[in-house]
Specification:
Number of helices: 15
Radius of gyration: 27 Å
Distance between the termini: 92 Å
Helix content: 55-70%
């Protein structure tokens, strides 16, 4: 009799929600579950699944997918992103983050970026930047013009004409600016166009002004160094050197003066409107 009663209770328990094991455990606020998931790293998806708010849940999944990608498990990361609702931006952001983390390239990069809407253009821009970074890592002297053309073609084919042009210009000028030449000289620019040579000096100048910190107070210190030289007159090598700014030789004075004109214009714009001094480095 007792045995039958116990079995009946067990059957009743199994058929009711209250007796089932809750995979999420005791109730917890979404914020707590989010933190627990992030702390769990690549194994945090189960905790994400227990978050009730759709945005917090999707954000959680995106960050766990990023952790999985950084740990070398790209397949799991892509699967996690693919499980997010396609009508939200979180799915696109997830694919964007993962594509960056695994340094996706070629057809795989294009496929992942296609799923990264509304961030597809930015995703492809990063792919192009990585590709040009590899190409220009050791730019041979004397072949700058050829590499300019090649860089433009690659960037255009990956990121489209408008973004591709900006990316290639920044990439090639960055490669020249990073050369160890001191002072900045014709050998620094090689066979690159005068415009690219000017951009390269501008990159080097902004490096010196802003260093690695772009906080407003750090930019103010940069302006203080630049302001005395922006008096409407041609900047001399001696004046720039005295201010601790990059020197150059007479052979590149024309493109360097063009770079100084742009830098001074940006300084004035920054003072008036708070625009970042690096925000338009693509268009001197």
């Amino acid at each position: 009799m007792r045995t039958n009663f116990a079995m009946s209770l067990m059957l009743l328990c199994l058929l009711t929600v209250g007796c089932r094991t809750d995979p999420c455990g005791p109730p917890k606020p979404d914020a707590v579950r989010y933190v627990d998931a992030i702390r769990a790293g690549i194994g945090g998806l189960s905790e994400c699944s227990c978050i009730t708010d759709p945005d917090v849940h999707s954000d959680c999944v995106a960050w766990i997918a990023l952790a999985q990608a950084e740990a070398g498990d790209a397949a799991r990361a892509e699967a996690a992103c693919g499980g997010l609702p396609s009508e939200t931006h979180w799915r696109g952001e997830c694919f964007f983050l993962v594509a960056d983390a695994i340094k996706a390239s070629g057809a795989r990069a294009k496929a992942m970026c296609a799923q990264a809407a509304p961030f597809t253009e930015w995703c492809l821009a990063h792919v192009a930047q990585r590709r040009l970074g590899e190409l220009l890592a050791d730019l041979p002297r004397g072949q700058e013009a050829a590499f300019e053309t090649q860089s433009f073609t690659i960037a255009r084919d990956i990121a489209g004409l408008r973004r591709g042009e900006r990316i290639y210009r920044r990439s090639i000028s960055r490669a020249l600016a990073d050369r160890p030449d001191d002072p900045f000289d014709m050998a620094t620019c090689g066979t690159a166009t005068e415009e690219t040579c000017s951009r390269a000096y501008l990159e080097r100048l902004l490096d010196e002004i802003l260093e690695v910190d772009i906080l407003p107070e750090a930019q103010s210190a940069g302006w203080a160094r630049l302001a005395p030289l922006c008096d409407g007159q041609a900047v001399t090598v001696d004046a720039a050197s005295a201010a601790g700014l990059p020197r150059w030789t007479e052979a590149v004075d024309e493109p360097v003066q063009s770079a100084w004109a742009v830098a001074c214009q940006r300084m004035q714009a920054q003072r008036l409107g708070g625009q970042s001094m690096r925000s338009r480095t693509f268009s001197p």
